[in-house]
Structure formats: structure tokens, C-alpha cells
Amino acid sequence: MPTDQIASEIRDLNLSYLMLAQSMLRADKAQALFRLGISEDVADIIVAMSPQQLLRAASRNLMLCAMRFDDEMVWGLLTDKHSPRATEDSTASRLHASVLMAGRTTTLTV
Question: Within 10 Å of residue 28's Cβ, how many Cβ atoms?
């Protein structure tokens, strides 16, 4: 994939993420903080951003969202890799994974 195309894909991802995050935060801040895994300070920055600021921030050549791919245990819980048990256990495992992932916060520098 050419470098220009990668930069364009990152910009699109960033803009989509920022627009989604801003919408989620305006609708239900507490739930958005949990689902996005961001701090209140970062949330306040995102909510206050104008469309021009969103576009400018999205145009950076680094991803602004934090993918939560680095925790094998969480992914194991989400995919039932550790134990293919009954549905109730699977639901509990996914809930446990959500709680673990929510404990992580990211920071945003604009």
C-alpha cells in the first residue's frame, strides 16, 4: 500500500473516530468514557473541538484512537479462547474483558 494511501486511510479513520467520539460524548458522557477508554480530560477536549479542529487533528499522520489489541487475556476473554463454556460463562467473560479494557485510558494531544 503506497504511503499516500496509508496516510489517507489514517486520516479517514481519525476523522470517523473523532466524530463518533464527539457524538457519543454528547449523548451519554459516562457511557462514552467507558466505551472509548478515554479520560474525562480527553473527553472534554474532543467535545469542545470545532469541525475545523476535528479535521485538522484527523489530518495528522498518526492514529488518534487507541486500538486495544495488546492484551492477550482480554482478547481471549472476548473470543472465548480460554474456555468454550456455556453462554452464561461467555457473557461473564465478555463483561470481565469490558471491565479490564475500561480501566485503561488514553490521552490525546492536539
Answer: 11
**Residue 72, CB-side half-sphere exposure with 13 Å CA sphere:** 1
Q: What is the pTM of this model?
A: 0.66
Q: What is the pLDDT along the chain (110 residues), one digit of tens a residue?
A: 888 999 999 999 999 999 999 999 999 999 999 889 899 999 999 999 999 999 999 998 899 987 766 667 667 767 766 555 545 556 665 565 666 665 655 444 44
The architecture CATH gives domain 1-65: Orthogonal Bundle (1.10)
- Can you read off the three cell numbers belonging to residue 17? 473516530
Cα–Cα distance measured from residue 10 to residue 59, given in angstroms and rounded to the nearest whole number:
8
What is the spatial distance between Cα 10 and Cα 16, in angstroms, rounded to a whole number? 10
Domain locations in the chain? 1-65, 68-104
